[in-house]
Fold:
Amino acid sequence: MESVMETSLRTVIGFVFLLSLTRILGKKQLGQLTYFTYITGIAMGNIAGDMVVHKDVAIADGLAGLTIWAIMTFAVEYASLKSPTIRVALDGEPTIIINRGQIMQKN
Structure:
Protein backbone atom coordinates (compact mmCIF):
# COMPACT_ATOMS: atom_id res chain seq x y z
CA MET A 1 0.00 0.00 0.00
CA GLU A 2 2.88 2.34 0.81
CA SER A 3 4.36 1.76 -2.67
CA VAL A 4 1.05 2.70 -4.31
CA MET A 5 0.85 5.89 -2.26
CA GLU A 6 4.43 6.84 -3.11
CA THR A 7 3.84 6.22 -6.83
CA SER A 8 0.62 8.22 -6.68
CA LEU A 9 2.37 11.13 -4.98
CA ARG A 10 5.23 11.03 -7.48
CA THR A 11 2.72 10.98 -10.34
CA VAL A 12 0.79 13.98 -9.03
CA ILE A 13 3.99 15.96 -8.40
CA GLY A 14 5.40 15.09 -11.83
CA PHE A 15 2.12 15.90 -13.58
CA VAL A 16 1.66 19.27 -11.91
CA PHE A 17 5.28 20.25 -12.45
CA LEU A 18 5.30 19.16 -16.11
CA LEU A 19 2.01 20.98 -16.72
CA SER A 20 3.44 24.14 -15.16
CA LEU A 21 6.60 23.99 -17.26
CA THR A 22 4.71 23.43 -20.48
CA ARG A 23 2.45 26.40 -19.74
CA ILE A 24 5.52 28.56 -19.06
CA LEU A 25 7.22 27.45 -22.29
CA GLY A 26 4.15 28.45 -24.26
CA LYS A 27 1.70 26.66 -26.43
CA LYS A 28 1.96 26.00 -30.12
CA GLN A 29 -0.46 24.49 -32.55
CA LEU A 30 0.45 21.07 -33.86
CA GLY A 31 1.20 22.51 -37.29
CA GLN A 32 3.73 24.93 -35.77
CA LEU A 33 5.78 22.29 -34.00
CA THR A 34 9.37 22.00 -35.10
CA TYR A 35 11.34 18.78 -34.71
CA PHE A 36 13.13 20.38 -31.79
CA THR A 37 9.86 21.25 -30.02
CA TYR A 38 8.48 17.79 -30.68
CA ILE A 39 11.57 16.04 -29.34
CA THR A 40 11.67 18.37 -26.34
CA GLY A 41 8.12 17.36 -25.44
CA ILE A 42 9.02 13.70 -25.66
CA ALA A 43 12.18 14.19 -23.59
CA MET A 44 10.35 16.12 -20.87
CA GLY A 45 7.68 13.44 -20.71
CA ASN A 46 10.37 10.78 -20.43
CA ILE A 47 12.12 12.62 -17.59
CA ALA A 48 8.81 12.97 -15.73
CA GLY A 49 7.95 9.32 -16.40
CA ASP A 50 11.30 8.12 -15.10
CA MET A 51 10.83 10.20 -11.96
CA VAL A 52 7.44 8.57 -11.35
CA VAL A 53 8.32 4.95 -12.14
CA HIS A 54 11.89 4.59 -10.94
CA LYS A 55 12.08 4.80 -7.17
CA ASP A 56 15.88 5.22 -7.27
CA VAL A 57 15.39 8.63 -8.97
CA ALA A 58 14.75 11.20 -6.26
CA ILE A 59 11.83 13.55 -6.85
CA ALA A 60 14.14 16.54 -6.43
CA ASP A 61 16.48 15.12 -9.09
CA GLY A 62 13.59 14.63 -11.51
CA LEU A 63 12.27 18.14 -10.91
CA ALA A 64 15.77 19.57 -11.34
CA GLY A 65 16.18 17.70 -14.62
CA LEU A 66 12.83 18.97 -15.89
CA THR A 67 13.66 22.53 -14.85
CA ILE A 68 17.07 22.51 -16.51
CA TRP A 69 15.62 20.99 -19.69
CA ALA A 70 12.88 23.66 -19.76
CA ILE A 71 15.41 26.48 -19.23
CA MET A 72 17.62 25.16 -22.03
CA THR A 73 14.59 24.82 -24.32
CA PHE A 74 13.51 28.36 -23.54
CA ALA A 75 17.04 29.66 -24.21
CA VAL A 76 17.26 27.89 -27.58
CA GLU A 77 13.81 29.11 -28.64
CA TYR A 78 14.67 32.66 -27.55
CA ALA A 79 17.93 32.55 -29.50
CA SER A 80 16.05 31.21 -32.51
CA LEU A 81 13.59 34.07 -32.25
CA LYS A 82 16.34 36.70 -32.09
CA SER A 83 18.81 35.27 -34.62
CA PRO A 84 17.87 34.29 -38.20
CA THR A 85 21.07 32.24 -38.46
CA ILE A 86 20.18 30.14 -35.42
CA ARG A 87 16.58 29.82 -36.64
CA VAL A 88 17.74 28.43 -39.99
CA ALA A 89 20.17 26.07 -38.24
CA LEU A 90 17.41 24.70 -35.99
CA ASP A 91 14.33 24.81 -38.22
CA GLY A 92 15.83 24.69 -41.71
CA GLU A 93 14.88 26.72 -44.74
CA PRO A 94 11.27 26.86 -45.89
CA THR A 95 10.52 25.21 -49.23
CA ILE A 96 9.04 27.64 -51.74
CA ILE A 97 6.28 25.94 -53.69
CA ILE A 98 4.90 28.90 -55.62
CA ASN A 99 7.20 31.71 -56.76
CA ARG A 100 5.72 34.74 -58.53
CA GLY A 101 2.65 32.78 -59.58
CA GLN A 102 4.63 29.84 -60.95
CA ILE A 103 4.48 26.39 -59.37
CA MET A 104 7.98 25.21 -58.60
CA GLN A 105 7.75 21.55 -59.74
CA LYS A 106 11.29 20.80 -58.57
CA ASN A 107 10.52 21.82 -54.99
